[in-house]
Amino acid sequence: MSDSITTAHAAADRRDLIILGGGLVGMTLALAAARAGITSHVIDRADPADLVAEGADGRASAISTASWNLFTNVGLADRLEALGCPIDSIAVTDGMKPGRIDFTPKPEEGSLGRMFANRDLRLALFDAAREEPAIAWHVRTEALRKDRGLHGVEVELSDGRVVAGSLLVAAEGRQSPTRDEAGFALAKWEYHHRAFVTGLFHEKPHANTAWEIFYPAGPFALLPLLDDAQGRHRSALVWTVAEKDAAGVAAMPDAMFVHEVAARMHGVLGAISLAAPRMSYPLRFHHAGKVVDHRLAVIGDAAHGMHPIAGQGLNLGLRDVGALVEVLVEGMRLGLEPGDAQMLARYEKWRGLDTFMVMSVTDGLTRLFGVPGRAASAARRLGMGAVQRTPMLKRFFMDEARGVSGKLPELLQA
Question: Using only C-alpha atoms, what is the Rg of the chain?
Fold first, then answer.
């Protein structure tokens, strides 16, 4: 920690926040803060043009009802409304055996969420950021020096510029250097699994249904996307395999990969073909027990990373955004500055329990469905049958999927 911030630099380039990382979570924070009158510098090493190039990222994200409320409240709904596919029901099954659970809300309750291509989310966020004077966006550069002093924070960029603010926010993703430099301890472990992600064209319409098919080697998820411009039916695939088998799957030619995927789908969507590039990444759990320090807050994947089994990773980061903005707005209304220690302590307390609960449930499901053997499968299906017949339990799981459980920040409320 240093107090070497120069008056000249602080006066010339000072804003309320310095956000390190301009990805989905970092840029949503900048935009949500701007709508509340809070200014920011956003620093990102990437070139935005590379991030939104056609074919650069075939991934898609499930946006919960609460997260959609956030996008609506910060003015992104008009840009995104036509691009998302509603998730009207979720089918959960143990290897496509009898005893599945169907989560289908009543029509008046709306969908369980929406599926968006990551590229579409980025385009909407980046376009909005360019139009927002409260956001100073610094791209193709990175932080060389970060000083957190008594009266503010100062960051020297690799392009020679120096920016200053009251609060430093690390939104740099799982490998966050700022989090590690601050000495935050992480609870972490490897799942020894790898997720293969791509898009599929399929013969039959998906009827806005998401499939979560559990196999002993890992979950196999099919997530509905809008039909493409040619009217072809599409879904996103997240196929989890054991790390020991991952090299073999990665080496498969496309035709063999499609054959293996089709075998696990049991024909639910008819004939299939690839609709996007294949990507893969290792699956790990990490949770920072501490997410604030002197003039520092850590959000999104920099603070927590989990198995994609429930599709809650991005949504958890967006809850961080809503909570942090609410804490900042209320504190600044009382005359406190964004880097005030009381405000940061409130943010940490608020997010700590919620994050831990969601991550614990996700980790528990991963382990429960990963137990091999007929007896374990029979026990799971017995439990799933009980959930299917118990409206209160189904309501609990649907509320979790929508992201509307617990104390919700105002930005995530309708």
Answer: 22
